[in-house]
Structures are given as C-alpha cells and as structure tokens.
Structures
1.
Amino acid sequence: MSNHLLQSNTQAILLLCASFGQKRDTEPKPLTLGEYNSLAGWLLEQEMTPGDLLNSTHKNKLLSATIGKLDSNRLVALLERGMMLSLAMEKWTNQGLWILGRSDSQYPKCLKQKLQHSAPAILYGVGNIELLTQGGLAIVGSRDVDEDAINYTNKVVQNCAAQGIQVVSGGARGIDQVSMLGALEFGGTAVGVLADSLSKAAVAGKYRPGIKEGRLTLISPYDPDSGFDVGNAMGRNKYIYALSDRALIVSSSFDQGGTWAGAIEALKKNIVPVFVRLEGNIPEGNKQLILNGAKPFEPTPHTSSLPTENPTEEVETPHTSSSLPTENPTEEVAGKLDKPKDIIYELVLPVLLEYLEQPLDEKSLAEYLDIQVGQMQKWLKRAVEEGKVIKTKNPVRYCLKHSAKQLLAKLEAKTE
Amino acid sequence: MVQAEKKQALFLLRQALQNPLADFREGQWEAISTLIKYKSRLLVVQRTGWGKSLVYFLATRLLRNQGAGPTLLISPLLALMRNQIAAAELIGVKAATINSSNTEDWEIVKSELLAGKIDILLISPERLANDDFRDTILLPISQRIGLFVIDEAHCISDWGHDFRPDYRRIVRILQALPSNIPALATTATANNRVVDDIKTQLGSNLEVSRGHLVRESLQLQNIQLPSPAARMAWLAQHLPNISGSGIIYTLTVRDAERVANWLKTQGINAQAYHSELENEKRQTLEDQLLNNFIKALVATTALGMGFDKPDLGFVIHYQRPGSVVHYYQQVGRAGRAVEQAYGILLSGNEDEEITNYFIQSAFPPEADTQQVLNALTCADNGLSVPQLEQQLNLARGKIDQVLKLLSLESPAPVTKQGSKWYATPVHYQPDTEKIEQLTSIRYQEQAQMAEYMQSQQCLMAFLAKALDDFNPVPCGKCAVCLGKPLLPETCSSELVNEAIKYLRRSDQVIEPRKQWASQAFPTYGFSGNMKNDLRAEAGRALCLWGDAGWGQLVKQGKYQHNHFDDALVQATFEMIQRWQPQPFPTWVTCVPSLNRRALVPNFAQRLADKLGLPFVPVVRKVRQNKPQKTMSNSYQQAHNLDGVFVIDSWQGMKGAVFLVDDFVDSRWTFTVIAALLRRGGSGAVFPLALALNSLDGG
C-alpha cells in the first residue's frame, strides 16, 4: 500500500487546506472550510477539478479570477507548498497514517450526505478505512464520569460488540475511551474521531493492537501533529454523529461542555437520532436533552439471545449496524418493525444504487455481486416499486431514476 | 521563445564559466529546458566534471527569474565545492548549506531563505532522518521550493553498489511531490540495472539523459602485493615519482590512519581522511588537496561523492574495493583536466576478508530485528535506546542499525517521537528474500572485481563494459594495452622491513571511560559521572586483534599455545619505553580469570620481571559471571561485572600500577577494576593489554 501517492485532486485540496504541522496562522494561511467551499464552487463553474490547479495554464486562470473574497495570490502561494506537502506526507504515511480528500472515492459518503458543506475537506486516519462506512452507535459523554456511567457504558458496548454494532466515539478521556476500548475488548469494532494528536494516538499501546487487527480506526480532520484545542474538540463532535447511525449520550452537563454542545448541534441539524441514558445517577444535562428532543435509551437490545427487561420498548432501540444513508433521519426515530428480509434489502440497496449509476441488466448485476439472478430480480422489483430505480425495455436495463441521479450529482457538486 | 531562453541560458553559462566561447555540452541545455518548461522528472547520468551542477544552477537561475521559489538540493556532500559556489555566484545564484556542523547558522539560513535571499539550499540525506530538524527547520522553509534536486541518485537503487538507506526516504518524498514542482536526479555512476531500478522507483514518467563514462587521460594498472608491509613499502617508494597530488583509498578507517602515518614517517606529506574526523577538519583536508598543499589524502569512501578536483594526478587503491562500480567511481576522480593521470589498484590478502565483513554486516540478523520489534510492541509508551539496551543483549550499534532500517521501511513498523521509539500499528514482514538477493549481488560484484584484478583485456574497456557504457574501445594506454607496467611492480626489501617494524609499533591508546552505565552497578554502587580519583589513566594496547603486526602472535598465544610468546613480553616492554606513563608505576597486577587461571598472570609476571617491578595479583574474582565477550552492549557489559571482583591489599599498594590483561574490548573490565583498586588505596592505574578488539572499526 502506497499511502503517500495521492490523487492530484487530493494533493490540491491538501495544498489549499492543510497546515502541514505549521501553525495555522503562518503565511500563506491555509483555507478554512468555508473558503475552500467557495473555491470548490468556482471550480465547478469553470468545469475544473482541484487537481487542475497544479497545471500551470490553469494556475493563470486562478490569478485573473475573482472568487468570493479570496485573494488569488494567497491561493497561488498555497499551491506552491508542494515540497512541504511531500515532506509531511512522507512522514505521516510512513507511520501508517493515510489521508483522504473530499474527492477521494474512499472518503466516507455519510459525512458528505449528512453534513454537506460541513464535511471536512481532509481526513487524516490510521487503521482499516472500511470501518468508516459501517456506521454504528455513537457513544459520547463527559470526561469526568462516575462508576454508574462507566458500568452502563460497558454494558452497552458489550451488547454492541455481541451484535456487530460498531462504536463511534471521540477518543477523549472518560466515556469516549471507555466505550472505544470496551468495544475492542469485547471483540467489536470502533471508530475514534480525534480532536488532536493523531500521530501520538496511532502508536499508543492501548490503541495499537486494535488498529493492527483492523478493528479500530482513528481519524481526525486536524493536522496529525496538532495539540489540544477547545475549538477543534467542539468542531469534531458533528463528525462523530455523522459517522454513526444513532447516538447515545451517556452523561452530559447542562448547557455547558462539549458533550452538551455536540448533542444540541446533532439534534438541531438532525444529523442522527439522539438517545440519552436515563438510568442510575442521571446528570442534569441528560434530562434537559430529553426536553430538547432526545429519546431515552434502552441499553438492552431485542436480540433473542440476550435477556430483555422491557421487550415492548424494543422498537425504540438501535438494532442494526446498517449505515443506510437516509434522506430523512427522523423517520427512523419514529421506528418501524424491520423484518430480516427488510434489513437485508436495506443493506443491499445502496450497493445496487451505486452500480446502477450506469444502466445494467439484472444478469450482469447479479454476476457482479455474486448473487442468484432470482434474488436480484426480487430486489430490483422492490427498488422499482419504491421509485428508486427505473426499468427500461428493449433491452431490459435498470438504472437510477433520473431524479435520483440528479440528486446524487447535486450532492457531489455541493461538496466539490 | 525557446530560442530566446536558450540564448539567455547560454549567456549565463558563459558567465558562470567565465569563458565567452563556452558552449553547452551535449544534453545540458535539453536537461535545463525540460525542467523549466515541462516541470519534468529527470535523471541525468553523466561522468564527474560533465557539468551536472551547471544544469541545476542554470535551471535555478531561470526558474527564479520566472518568480519560482529556491531550489532544494539533497546531497551527501558536506558543502558545494568552492569552484561550484563561485560559478553559481557569477550568475547570481546564492547557495547555502545546512548540516550538522553549522547548527548556529540554521536560523539565519532559515530567515534568509524565507526572505528570498537564498537561491539554492544544500542539505544532507541524513538530515531528513532527524525529526526535530524536519519539523523546526525543513518544513517551514519548504513552503516555496521551486526545484528539487537529488545528487548521487545511484544511492536510490538498493540494487546499486552504494545503497544508502536514507535515500529510501528521499524516494518517497519525490514520489509524493505534486507535479507542479520539477525534480532532477543526478549521478556519475549508474549501470543499466541501477538506472532501471531508479526508474521503477521514481515512476515511468522519469526522463533519462545519459552520456559516456570513459576517461581519456586515465592510465590504469593493477598490482598484486599480498602483504600490507609490501604495499606500504611500494607506496613509500613510488609515490614521490608520480607527479601531482592524489588520493590513496583504503577499505577501513584504521588502514587510512596507519598508511597516512607510515607515509609521514617516510617524509611524504600525506593525511588521513575518513568519517570519524570532524566535518571542519575534513573540509580543511579537502582544501589542502584541492590546492596541492599535500601529496595525498589517504581516505576511505568518506572522501567520495562529488569531490571535484580536475587536476587530480593519481588514485591509488591500497586495497581492492567491493565492486567495479565503486572502483570506477573512485578511480574516475583522476584524469579529468590533466594530460596524464594514474589509476593504480594494489591488492592484498586481506581485501576479501574485509569486503566479506562489509557484505555480511550490511543487514542485521533477523533475530536482532525481531527482538527489537518485540520489545517495542510490548511497550505501552515507547522505549528510548538506553532502555532497549537494558532489555536486550544487543550492541548499541546493532540496535541503532535495526531501528534505522526499520524506520525506513515503507510503511515503517517503528517511529521515533521525541527521544523514544514506538511500534506503529503497521503489519511488517521482513523481506528476507530481498536481503538474500542483495547479498548475492554483492558477492557477484566482489567476484567481478577480482576478475578485473586479473584482466587480460583493456582495463578501461573492462570497467566501461561492466558499467554498461555503450561501445567501449581499448584505451591504448593502460598496462594491459601497452603490454608493460606503467609503474614498477616491485619495491626494495629494506623498505619492506621498515614497514614491518612500523606495523609492529602500532600501539593503541585505551581511552579511560568517564561515566558509569546507568543502573548497572547496584552492588558496587557506581553511578553517574566517574570521580577523578576512581578513573583509570589512558592505557595502551600492543596491537589490534588479529592484525598484521603482533596480532597473529597474540591470537596464537591465546587460542593455540595457552602461553604468550617472549617476543610479546619484549614488544610490550618496548612499548612502555616509548610510552613513559607518569607517574611511572611501581608495581604490576592483572585481571584474573577463572577459566584460564595462568595465562595472563604468567605474562604479567614475566613483564614485571623485565621491568624490575613486583607482580602482585591483588584482584580476585569472587563470582563466575558470563563471558564478557557474550555481552553485546554497554549496559550488559557493565552490569555483568557488578560484584564480580574484590581487591586484596598489600603494603606497596599506594604506588601507581600497571593493570594487565590480554584483550580489551568494551573497557568495562579495566574501568571497574581500576575503580576498585583506587577505592582500595592504590595510586594511578594504567591499563595495559596485548590486543584491542577492532571489529567495529570499519
């Protein structure tokens, strides 16, 4: 694996936005996400990709352009930082770190879909990239916690591990680490979205074995060598939510601290359904979050192999590890009783949709996925019924419904 | 447009060379043009003196004129050669160097570079390995680099004769470099395999510019002289008859020192040059050779790449190098801007043993690598090198070698953060097959060099062919083409005898240790800096273990006869006369052994008799420990001696004393016993050994 060989698009995004271990106020100042978004908009108008900026003719175009309030000399100066990029890349990637730009195919789609313009332009990470698309339960809470909260968290992560539900958290002291390390201990997988010091965390004894086994992935939108910063810690909360299917707040203070702010943000922006612990020693913040739209969390899942105390409420609990992007997340909060075949269908659907960006017949599609043609027909039929896919005749082909395709294109356009 | 640029470049070239009639050599303008116009990735393979540096100076000037940032040049050279700097300055290209010997200038260079006052910055490949340097100096100044140049690019090829691990990092940096920055790699020596390997590593869009290698004024001759004394005598006799100044290459640092000192005793102005000298000293020596102030530098390969003296009169090899490419690279320094220059290869009996040692120690054994990796994997928060020494019975040098090679793997299973090493979460599988392949290539190269030694065809053509030069023709001026020696193959037996005597006077100083190994002596309670009144004095060893002088006789005494010959007693006595330690000892004692109870005391007794001093064996060994030679690093060697010896007292104790042993390696035995003697009331302690182990003397 050659992590240091980046796509030219990713190179350009890094040149524009990364600080490469320097202070962010060093001249030329790297673009903020907002500034980058306005440049991305201009690129789209010009029918250019970020990588085109590395080409000298296109560079001249940049010099004569007016892009929002951006100073084009600053952009040119940023793009001249190629040597800096390659030195930093060599250092980071040689420790096993990887870098994803928003244009990379492996960049987690859920971030773009759920956060749109707030999806970070760059992600630094270490570990199994595939975990980023597996959704899961976000578990967050304050740094200082009591035994109740710790026991509770351990119970939840043990259940998650047993059911193959991934844990997503922030790697901070307290609930974050308890949940991530717990998930690993019980044999599950975990994703940590760090606010600082990714290079240090990557070699810490507590994380190293999990990363090596492919069960733990750490990512950060911030420079791998950057130290702690309150703003960054707040800023990364939404990524924890966006990478998950549902979120559980174990403990939050009221109207202060990162956990509270993050939960309120997630509720306001409807990033994912938010649940709160209402057991044991309940902090004031937890109760207040209920008033703000969060739901009580029932830690015991409905799976028959595990005892349940209150089966009637099972519909409210998170119970799949599906990372289905839903256009309307609130629908899930309302809850619907999924039969296994529905679960499977929903898991398969995004894969089908991705293939069907190009028109295909059912036989080739079945071959691609190594599935019986009969089964494929059933799924396609349902997708057609749901209006997600259209079927053409002579020859018979399936493809994304035009509107769906446009929607995807629009989403892409917004983020690039 | 192109014509205008070329015209301007030609103008600059003539300015740089101070020659209004100068013109580009074949390929020079093309190289410059492709860099500035197409931001290409280019490999230039041309012999030393062709003008590779002019390519990057002119390209730098032209790019700077277009508003580009300065050039970053990675080179193993200590500094640009003075004539190169002068040429650069003539076209307004200001060069600066950052290396380990000018730390006080770093901040100034940094700010000047950021202010645009420096046009080309030279740094060594090893600097890139230093994280602190990368973070605090290199990264900040790299925000506006306009051209990336890698000198001595053959070091990139791990198939090459001169692979340097640090170049692995440079390859990755070059691979990661965005296409809007042009890059140039240059070398004077690369055969097809090396060029292909560089291409594979740097990508198929690498363009290659390659020229002829043959040196027209260089005359080659090979002479077989088995014994070191004969070769030293040959040098002393014939060097004065060769005109001009030159270089004598040896395979080891010790040989460089020894040959240089021998030539000095023979009234020849020669100086040793090797990696153990300070950078400043090395630059002074280079200057002295450049200006013909000395007859010869006796050098290891440390005097190598990029050294550019157009009027070098000769290159003589005291021993046979490990490969033809090595040899060509070194001998090719001679005969560039002079009518006639000699390339003489002397070859002796020890050559193969030395090159074998280099080949065998190039890679650490897999078990060592595994031990280091295991220790780091078990550590939660990393380990420093001293901590690794405490946990592992591996030599410091071995630990460093393992860590260095591992940290250069891609991706690396270990990484250094601050002063500690950490295991990374990377899956690592050592490529043993590749190591075997490389080792076998090294042996093939060694065999080819032996073949060259015996060659019955034109020697220059042999070298050119081995380097894949196209269409080599007989040179007509080497010893084979001429059918007679250029220089006599013999030397006077008187000089040979003198050289033998010189070799037998190769006393070695045993420097005293000044610091206790941390946490190694809980029983004796030794720690921290050694107090003056516990330290040993500087001692002496008669010879190097297994060496050409007395070394063989010591070896026989220890392992065959279990008795040291009287000749060694006499030689040691003579050494003491030369040495005259002050205050002169009044008694003799020795290091005890439980395995060979008589060997050393017997020798010490005879030496004491000869000196007319009493021999009093006051040091007793009270505990059997593991053999000291199985202890591999300083901590283990020191710790193995804790509580092992006690000192008996006697009335004459307070005088100075000779402390005798047969063999000295880590010096810990001498150090510990000296401290115990001093603590027991003795006077100054002078360590005295028959042989000094020198295997790590490279």
Note: Chain B has a mean pLDDT of 90.
2.
Amino acid sequence: MTANRNGYTRRETLGLGAAALAAGTLGMPFVRTARAQAATFKAGVITSLSGENILGGNLTKQGYDLWADAVNAKGGVEVAGEQFKVEMFYGDDQSNPATGADAAERLIVQNEVDVLFGPYTSGSTIAVQPICQKYQVPMISGSAESPNVWKAKPEFNFGIIPAVDTTSGLSIGVLAKQSNPAAKTVAVIGVNEPFSKETGEGFRDGVAAAGLELAAYELVPPDGDLTPVISKIAALNPDVVAVGGHEEILINVVKTSKSLNFRPKALIMHYGITNPAFAQALGADADGTTGVVVWLPTVAYKDDVFGTAKEFSDMAAKKLGGEPDYTAAGCAASGLVLGDALKRLGKKPALTPEDRVALKDAIAETDIQTFYGPIKFEKDGPHYHDNVQPVPVLVQIQSGKVVAVGPKEAAAADYIYPLPAWK
Amino acid sequence: MDLFLQTLLNGLLIGGVIATFTIAFQLTFGVLHVIDFAVGGWVVLGGYLGYYMAAGLGVDGFLAIPAAFFLFGAIGYLIGPILYNVRNSRTARPELMALALTFGLFTLLRGGMLTAWGFNTRNVPTALSGESLALGPVTVPMIRVAAAVFAIVIAGGLFLFLYRTRYGLAIRATAENRQNAALMGVNIRRLSANVYGLYAGITAMAGVLMGAVYSVNPEIGLRYTLFAFFVAVLAGLGSVGGALVAALLLGVIEAYVSTYVGSSYSLLAIFATLFLVLLISPKGILRRGL
C-alpha cells in the first residue's frame, strides 16, 4: 500500500471523506430543528401561479396572504396563551391538476407544512386530495366550487365556498321571491362540461325545489351553435332562462337571443357575469342579466380579524388595487378557519403527524361567524366537508354595474323584472 | 311548423357561417397539399383585429374586414415559402413535417395571443349585430345573413378567379400536377406564397365575422380548426365548391338534431354523417376531393 504525498493512504483518505460526509448528513436534522425553533405555523398554498388560470390563481394566493398578513400583524395565531406567526409557502400547479399533486407533495415533504390552502380550480383540488390523505395533512380550500370535489368524500379537505349546485339551486328560489309578478316557468341550458353542467343541474333541481315549472332542460355541447336551442326555448316562451356555463357561452347566449329577438323576463347565469369583461363585451345588452355570487362587500357579516365585510373589502382594495371578489374573500376566510382550529387544538408548532390529524378533526368541528358569513362543514351527504351555510346573493347588471338585488336583506337596488324588450 | 322553418333557416345560416372559414382552407390543401392546423389561429387573429379596431378606433367592426385581408394576407405571404420548403423538403415524410409545422404555428399563435391579450372573451360590435328581421313566422338574424353572403361571395369570387383568369389556371395546374406546372413555367414557390397569403387573408376576414356572430378569445381557435377539418373531409379535401355544400349540410343537420332530438346529440350526428360519407364516398359528397 503506498502512501501519497501528504502521508495518507488511499484507504485512509476515502475513510475520512466518508466520515466527513456522514457528519454532514447527520448534522442536517439538527440544523433543521434549529430553524424550526423560530416556532411558526407553516402553511402551504397550492394554486395556479402560471398557465391559463394565472389570474384566478393569483386571486386565491392574494386571499390567503391577506389572512396571513392580517394575523401576523396582530402578533400571530394565539395558542395556549402564546402567539405564533404564520409562515407561507407556495406551490405552483401550472394550471394542471397532475402538476398540482406533485407541488402539494413537495410542500408537505420538503417544506414540512402543517396545513395546505387549496387550489383555484376544482380539477387541481381533486388531484391534490389524495396527497393530503396519503400524508394526513389537512387542506382548506377557499376557491373550489365543483360538487365533484365533495362527492369524493375527502377526509382531509374542507371547502369554504358552497358547491355550485347548491348556490345555483337556491338562487332560483331567491329569484322567484324577488320577481313580481312571480316567475312561473324556467328553461335551463347547461353546457356539457365540468362545472357548467353541475351549475345547470343545480338550476334544474332548484326549479323543482322552488315549486316552479321546468319548461326545458337542454344540455348543449361547448362547441355547438346556440341558435337551435334558443329558437326552441323561444317557442316555449318561459319566464326565466337559466344558463350554466363559462363566460364565452354566456356572452354568446345573450348575442344569440338578441339576434333572434328573444327576451325572457329574466336571464340568470351563475358565474362570469361579475367579470367586467362580460359587461364590456356586451355593452348595453348586458344590462338586466342576473347572476349569483356567494359574497359581496355589502353583506352584513363580521369577525375579530378582518372586521366587517366592508372593512375587509377596503383593506383588500388598498393592498390589491381593486375590490376583492368572493374567491379572494373565501380564501381569506379559509385562514380564519385555520386560526380558530389551531386555537382550539392548543398545540404549539411544529405540529407532529398526530397533531395534524387532530387539527383535521378540529377543523371538522368549525362553527364560526366571519366577515364572509357563517362557516360550518357538512358531516355527511353529497356535500361532505363543504360549507353550505351561506345564502347566495342575487346580482343584476344595471347600467353596466353589478348590484345586489336579492334576497331582500342584501339588496342594494330593486330587481328589474320583467326585462324590457331589446333596443 | 314555425319552429320547423326557423330551424331550417338556423341550419342554413350555421352552414353559411362555417363555410366562411372553410373555403380558403380547401384552396390551401388543393395547392400546397398541407392540412393547415393554423386555420383556427387566423380566424381568432381576425376576430381580435375586429375587436381592437372597434374598441380602439371606435369604427364599425365591418371596416376591419378589408384591413384583416391586407394585414394577415401579407403575413401569410411571408409564411407561405417556409411552409412550401418544409412540404417539399427531401427529408422523410414531408407531409407530416408540414402538419407539425402548422400545428406549431397554431400553438404559437394561441400562446402568443393568450400572453398578449389575456383570456377574456371579446366581442366585435357591428352595425348588424343583434339586428333581426321578422319574415312571417321566422326571425332572421342579420349578422349571420351577412356571414352567409360573405361565404357565397368569396366562393363565387374564388371560382371566377380559378376558372376565368390565367393565374387561376396556373393555380389549378399546380394543384393537379406540380412538376408539369413547373415545366410550363409556373413559379411554384411564388405561387405557393401567394396562395397561402390569399388563404390567410380570407380566413382572417372570416374571423372578423366570427367575432361578430359569436365572440373571440384565444382558446376558441381549435374549434374552428376542427370544424374546418370536418367540412373539408365531408366536402372532399381540396374541393372549394364541395365546402359550401358540406357546410350547409352540417349546419342543417346540427340545427334539426339540436331542436328535435337534443343538443347533446348534435355533434354525434355530425360525426355519424362524416363517417357514413367517408364509407360511401371517400372523395367527399361531390366526389371532387383529391
């Protein structure tokens, strides 16, 4: 065996190297523990920070951040008489559910988050749920609206926004009450794609629940032309036409109806009409269109962290440069649920795996009032772990602006019904 | 009976609308032997030009139609030679390479539009938007009539151009046999650039009308590509006259199935028709396809 110039044999050199490497690796956990002793709750936000859903993704991120900033400004979440700040970590699903699942796994394994805040889209939420289950990490979803999320009975996921079928269903009842003379017949158009179809089914079931007559239920393909369907419905002449679809279809429904000179007494659509692009695209033709939202800055709710809905809206507007919509509000309210559950749990960070399961159980027992409205999760049924408490607010476009028109206690203006003929 | 007549009119007008962006697509296939996946991209670009001219300059959307022809015609003229080179390269499978090129172009257009203009849905306002004419029991949507008239004028114009002019003769000769045409002194490369430019210009003009009839956003291009392809296959690839007939047929089928069977079956009926025609007459309904 030959010794090299500095007097070590090759075997000794290798041995020393291995020892150094081992020391480094073994040393790592201590470094980690030292860092964790800064004692914060770690929350992971998994949402669309790039790709086609970037705008909605940012909306959710901003909503979650609003809560973290607000609670940290007050010193943090209070647990057993001590305050602990919240540290936020972010994962990008790139507007793709499968990528979302990977990003969630990374947040859990690498960033060791105690809890997740859910994605913007229902598709990503459904993809992330099994990851939460696998690692037993609770997730609070402030944006997902598809009933399919809850049909899967996710043990570790909780939804703040009522599933779209419940809101669209209830809205028909609100509309029937606000209309004078009362609406009697309803035709429903649902686009045959996820979300839109469920919205249409919600409208359809709501018609029966409100004791109205269903004139027609039409499921249309997303790529089809709407003239045949609108002509058919025009021949039936229902009082109300309800549409479950995304923004593009909604715009095309209004354009096609006008070009066929068909104007129902009310035209109700769930999603998208609050997007300024809708009124911008249609100009005066958008006026009179009814929509459904879960939350508006004018609702009469409040809590300790954000104050009233109006105060939350002003604070958010200052930070985000525009009035927040119900997605941002739902995400901020997700934080309130977490804060409340951590307080009741009474465990200091960092949470052990057993603590996380206990946190999940604590979240399931949530029963609080917030600026967003009441929050309490369903314990069984098709909306398992979804918060179906809030009553939807009916809005109408009047002179290009979205105003609340029902139910009575939330209305800021009279409901225009029946709609005047096309100009 | 009223609904029956209204449905017939709806169907014919849907056909007229689909024909607008299919006619030039056929010409490109006939001459360049390329299935241009980018057709939906040109439609959407035309729609956006209409939107920006109407929103930015405050002019009527119809004024964007000639602007679309010159602007996108020029861009198509520049892209044409690239497509020609790929299609006639000596590497293996140039027809698939050309297909990949147009698919890439389509993806680039879609992504570029999404980045530049966002995903909001836009509308092209025109003097005829929302206008209707009551003709006895049926209501005639005027903007769709405008689109159908456009399709007929373009098809007629192309027909005259192809069969009554010297340059049209050169185009037909090239479509029939490229080598023979070249031997007769036709500059195939320049002719290909011209045809692609003509096609891009006409398709973008149709796009302005699509924005007025429906609406426009970067994601909808694929729908137009698919419909152009359905119609082209039904018409027989390369047959310009067949495109008009096939589009009208598909429109009428879609309208009647939607009204009397159910909207969810309309695409099924279209595919079934396509399948049957391919089975019985693989060269398209007029048996004029390549």
Note: Chain A has two domains: 41-162+297-376, 165-293+392-410.
